[in-house]
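User: My instructor asked us to take a sequence, write out its structure as C-alpha cells, and then describe one feature of it. I'm not sure where to start. Here is the sequence I was given:
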Amino acid sequence: MKITGIELRRIAMPLRAPFRTSFGVATSRDILVLRVVTPEGEGWGECVAMSEPRYSSEYVDGAVEVLKRFLIPALPDNADAHAVKRAMKPFKGHNMAKAALETAVLDAQLRARGESFGAYLGADRESVPCGVSVGIMDSIPELLDSVGEFVDEGYVRIKLKIEPGWDLAPVRAVRERFGDDLLLQVDANAAYTLADARHLAGLDAFDLLLIEQPLADDDLVQHAALARRLTTPICLDESIESAEDAAAAITLGAASIVNIKPGRVGGYLEAKAIHDLCVAHGVPVWCGGMLETGLGRAANIALAALPGFTLPGDTSASRRYYDTDITEPFVLADGRLDVPTGPGIGIDPLPELLRDVTTSSEWIKL
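Assistant: Let's start with the prediction itself. The C-alpha cells for your sequence are:
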C-alpha cells in the first residue's frame, strides 16, 4: 500500500468534568490525530499521549517531533501495518506515537479491502460490557453521587482511582452504598510503595476485582512481593509495554490480570500479541482507556471483543468524557457498546465537528 501523505492534526477537547488521578487533574485534552492518505483512501489514528509526561514519559509535543523526524521518514515505500511496525522498531520507546501511526495505516489497509478491525483482530462478540473509571473526588458524598449516576446509566463495573489518603474510606463507602454485587476495582497509577503493603491489604476486605498498578511501573519484583501479601489480585498497567513485559510479569507472579492499552504498548498488533500470550497462560485481560475520542474508542471496542477480554474495560460511552465527540457518539445500551462492523475502525470523524476543535494541522507529503 503506497502512502502519499500524512496529516498531523491537533485538536482541543474540553472534558465534561475535571478528571483527577494520583498524577494530576485533567480538564481538557490536547489530542494528536493522524490521517494517512493512500491512492485507495485514508485511515485514522489517535495518539493518546497527554500534554505532560506524567502518566508516562510521552507527551503530545514529543509525539509530534518523533513522528516528523524519525517514524514517518522510516516508512517503507509499500507499507502495511506489519511493515510499519518493523520499520519503527529500531527507535526506542515512543509507543504512543508508534501506535497512532500504525493504527492509521492499519485502518487505511482494512478500509481498502473492506474488512473491519474486529474481524481482523479476531473479535468473537457483537458488543462488549462496559465499565467506567471514576476519578478522585473532593469528598465521599460527591464520590457516591458520581458512582450512583454511572450505575444508573448502566455501567457494569466501577473503577475508583485511589492514592494515599484516598483509598480505604472511599472504597468502603462505595461498597456499603452499592452492595456486594457491584463489580468494583481500584487503580493507584503507581502511587504506593512496598512499604504500604499492610495498608493496601486493608482493601482485601472489599472483594475487589483487582488493584491496578499499585507500585512503580519499573518494578515487577516488588509487585510480585506485594502480590504474595494480598488476596486482591494485582493488575498491571503502566508496567506492561510489550508482550515481553507481560511474559516477565506473569513469570514472576507480579500480575494475575493485565490491562491492555494499545497506545501504551505501541499499537493493536502488539495488543493482540499480549492478548494471545495471556490467553495461553490463563491470565484475564481487559481494555484500558485513555480518554479517547470516538476514533480511539472504536478501535478499542473492537479489541475488547476478543475472547480473552473477560473483564469489562474502560470503554465508556462518548458522553462519559465529552459533551460532543468528533464522531457519531458511542451510546451505552444495557451496559454494553456495539462493536463497529464497517471497514477499518468503522467510524469517521464528522468534518464540521473536527474543524471546530482543530488548533493546528500539518500535511506531510511522501
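For the description part of your assignment, you could build on this observation: The chain has two domains: 5-114+348-365, 118-338. Try explaining in your own words what that tells you about the chain.
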